[in-house]
Design a protein that fits this description.
By secondary structure, this protein is an alpha/beta fold. The protein contains 13 helices and ten strands. It has two domains: about 190 residues, D-Maltodextrin-Binding Protein, domain 2, CATH 3.40.190; about 90 residues, 3-Layer(aba) Sandwich (D-Maltodextrin-Binding Protein, domain 2), CATH 3.40.190.120. Helices cover about 40% and strands about 15% of the residues. A five-stranded mixed sheet has the order 7-6-8-5-9. Strand 6, helix 7 and strand 7 form a beta-alpha-beta unit. The longest helix has 16 residues.
């Protein structure tokens, strides 16, 4: 992989930022209540609970991990929609869950916001120390899911918007839409202002991706954040804005696990089998099956695992 140019502007901002970084995920009013369904039955003596944030892809990944564990004879269940990173990391620390799907760049930014790592390799190398005692990360996947800012094709054409650097031309009269926690994130409005000089007149919070899509198409908001694996981007012809200052770090899928899981060779083999087989195209297709085709996350995860010989 060709090394990515380091951004002095971004490093300076991260060093000075006082905001709390976070992942691309939402919140839940009762985040640690209840597992989904009955525990899966495997051969392990200790059940491993796989948690997820409350967005589609995280729930699919949790199902992939849990079902792959069961296929290896490890007892596992899922606890979906835990909430934001602040909440599910506490769950890992207190033993409520033992595995959560994560994303490399955002996880490092949360744990060590001043860390200068910027390439995918640098970030993965920095994570084992950053996660601290009692937690571990396994191997990252080639599958990635970046946070991305988009505009409609009409806005891109009419206003000359192709990158985050162009947003300063329209931000003063525009509304930015995204999940509530983005408002205080270093790759959210604080970063857009400090790194790109773009200060929006309003930030509008969205819990429903469908409502956000409708409002963007209706010009009620002019810029919105999505994940690059969301089908809505292609389905609506949105223009993904370039990030020349590398404000948004590489986001490879990676399991964040309790140390006991990292010490369990059967569990590691199951999880790393998923990690090695998963691609960005797979993630996009799996998300679409759940979000657009309205299939169950457990079902689509099981079908994918069978197609790869992992279950």
């Amino acid at each position: 992989m060709t090394p990515i140019r380091r951004s002095t502007t971004r490093r300076t901002f991260l060093a000075l930022a006082a905001v709390a970084p976070v992942a691309a995920c939402g919140v839940n009013n009762n985040p640690m209540s209840g597992s989904s369904g009955e525990p899966s039955q495997g051969g392990g003596s200790e059940e491993i609970v796989v948690g997820s944030a409350n967005f589609t892809e995280s729930q699919i990944l949790a199902e992939l991990y849990a079902q792959a564990l069961v296929a290896k004879g490890v007892t596992a269940s899922t606890k979906p929609s835990i909430g934001s990173r602040e909440v599910y990391i506490k769950g890992l620390q207190d033993g409520s869950v033992q595995i959560v799907p994560e994303y490399t760049g955002n996880l490092l930014a949360f744990l060590d916001e001043g860390n200068p790592a910027q390439t995918a390799e640098e970030i993965e190398s920095a994570l084992p120390e950053a996660v601290g005692e009692g937690l571990a990360v396994l191997k990252s996947s080639p599958a990635t899911d970046q946070d991305v800012y988009v505009v409609t094709a009409d806005t891109a054409s009419a206003k000359g918007i192709a990158s985050l650097a162009d947003l300063k031309k329209i931000s003063a009269e525009s509304v930015l839409g995204g999940p509530g926690e983005l408002k205080e994130r270093p790759y959210g409005p604080p970063g857009l202002e400090a790194i790109y000089g773009a200060t929006f007149k309003e930030f509008k919070t969205y819990d429903s991706p469908a409502v956000k899509v409708k409002d963007l198409n209706d010009d009620k908001i002019q810029v919105a954040t999505f994940f690059t694996t969301e089908a809505a981007i292609g389905d609506n012809g949105y223009v993904m804005l370039e990030d020349p200052e590398l404000m948004i770090l590489p986001q490879n899928v990676i399991p964040l696990v309790a140390q006991a899981v990292a010490d369990n060779s059967e569990a590691v083999a199951a999880l790393e089998g998923v990690q090695a087989a998963l691609t960005t195209e797979d993630l996009t297709a799996l998300n679409k099956q759940v979000d657009t085709d309205h299939l169950d996350a457990k079902t689509v995860a099981g079908d994918w695992l069978k197609s790869k010989g992992l279950a």
